[in-house]
Amino acid sequence: MEHTTVRNEDAQRELERRALRNVRALVDNLERRERIDARRGMRLVAGVLVGVMLAIGAAFAIVHWTHRPSGSTEIQLAPVRVPPAR
Fold first, then answer.
1. Rounded Cα distance, 20 and 26, in Å
2. Closest CA to 51 of 40, 59, 41, 39
């Protein structure tokens, strides 16, 4: 009878160890998925920022090139002379 109790205790310990290993594997898997999701989120934010910057740059370039007055002339102004202080 004592031999059977030892076997049962050993089997119980083995089941507990296996359960702990399974729980640890699940936790590791969840942590890995969270890290992957965080990286994806950062890549998404970076991509959106780059896209917005490119769109702003393209809009500025288009406005700059298309709204330049054609045939405009440059006006030269004579320098203003200030009389000396008395």
1. 10
2. 59
Write the Ramachandran bin of 69: left for phi over 0, alpha for psi from -120 to 50, otherwise beta: beta
Q: Rounded to an integer, what distance in angstroms lies between the CA atom of residue 27 and that of residue 17?
A: 15
* Residue 70: per-residue pLDDT: 62
Length of the chain: 86
Q: How high is the pLDDT of residue 66?
A: 82
Closest CA to 53 of 65, 63, 61: 61
pLDDT for 19: 96
Phi, psi of 65, rounded to the nearest 5 degrees = -80, -30
Over residues 4-51, the pLDDT tens digits come to 888 889 999 999 999 999 999 999 999 999 999 999 999 999 999 999
